[in-house]
């Protein structure tokens, strides 16, 4: 049987390597299935928080643990201070178009304020003289997602500039606070598109999350398929090699037998010079 031949002296080491490879591929498949379950649990959590009523940030304090508001919409009302508006430079839209993001303080009735990232505008409209055309209708509540103050890639806070700046690379509340006359909340808001807002309206806003299951299931099927191909292919390889070896052995035996037959004299013949007459004794020729 082929299974028994897998562990003979010739193939046992290769078989162990193939078994290890199949095990790794199967493990990768189950790992992708585990990632799929994690993704589904994450999507369920986000969907549940998204369905909750927006948290009124203007009249309720920030929770001690900001993760309580993660993926939950917040709502604020106030008056935008366009005189102290700034932009995040070197920003690209989802389609790769270059531009900036408008960031505007929203001042509450109690005098506090929160920075609102209102959306993206193209680079050719990034000059301050173009900003007034993007002002929001007065009295309209802002709904968005809480975002933490942004740090440098190494985790450190960016330096505080000596003078007010309108162009920034990140929204760091501590760095921006000195140029504001009011107390900023230690977070900022990523404004979401309002219901019925045209897709191409400026400032451009988009949903920050798309809840899907990703490619984990297809990857799992791929790894399981690779494992099956390796296992089945190895069995076919062993069968082919064993059949080839048997064929070669049969050919070698046939060749040896043919050589042996050719080396034997035909039966019923005698060497030349032997006369079968006179009792079969050799006849000697000579002079009388």
TrEMBL record:
It holds the Pfam family SURF1. Residues 259-288 are annotated as: Disordered. The chain crosses the membrane at residues 12-30, 217-237. It comes from the Bacteria. Its main location: membrane. Belongs to the SURF1 family. This is SURF1-like protein.
């Amino acid at each position: 049987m082929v299974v028994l031949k897998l562990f003979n002296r010739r193939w046992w080491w290769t078989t162990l390597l193939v078994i290890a490879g199949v095990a790794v591929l199967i493990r990768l498949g189950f790992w992708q299935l585990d990632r799929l379950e994690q993704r589904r649990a994450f999507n369920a959590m986000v969907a549940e928080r998204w369905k909750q009523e927006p948290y009124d940030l203007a009249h309720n304090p920030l929770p001690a643990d900001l993760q309580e508001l993660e993926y939950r919409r917040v709502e604020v009302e106030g008056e935008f201070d366009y005189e102290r508006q700034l932009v995040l430079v070197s920003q690209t839209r989802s389609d790769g178009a270059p531009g900036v993001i408008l960031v505007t303080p929203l001042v509450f009735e109690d005098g506090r304020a929160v920075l609102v990232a209102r959306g993206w505008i193209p680079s050719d409209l990034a000059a301050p003289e173009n900003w007034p055309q993007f002002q929001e209708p007065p009295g309209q509540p802002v709904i968005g997602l809480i975002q933490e103050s942004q740090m440098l890639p190494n985790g450190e806070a960016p330096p505080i500039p000596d003078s007010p700046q309108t162009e920034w690379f990140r929204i760091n509340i501590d760095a921006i606070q000195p140029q504001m006359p009011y107390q900023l909340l230690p977070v900022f808001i990523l404004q979401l598109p309002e219901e019925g807002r045209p897709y191409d309206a400026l400032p451009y806003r988009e949903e920050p999350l798309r809840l899907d299951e990703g490619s984990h299931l297809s990857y799992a099927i791929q790894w399981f398929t690779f494992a099956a191909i390796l296992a089945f292919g190895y069995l076919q390889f062993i069968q082919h090699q064993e059949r080839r070896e048997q064929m070669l052995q049969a050919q070698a035996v046939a060749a040896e037998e043919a050589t042996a037959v050719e080396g034997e004299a035909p039966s019923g013949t005698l060497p030349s010079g032997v006369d079968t007459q006179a009792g079969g004794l050799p006849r000697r020729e000579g002079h009388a």
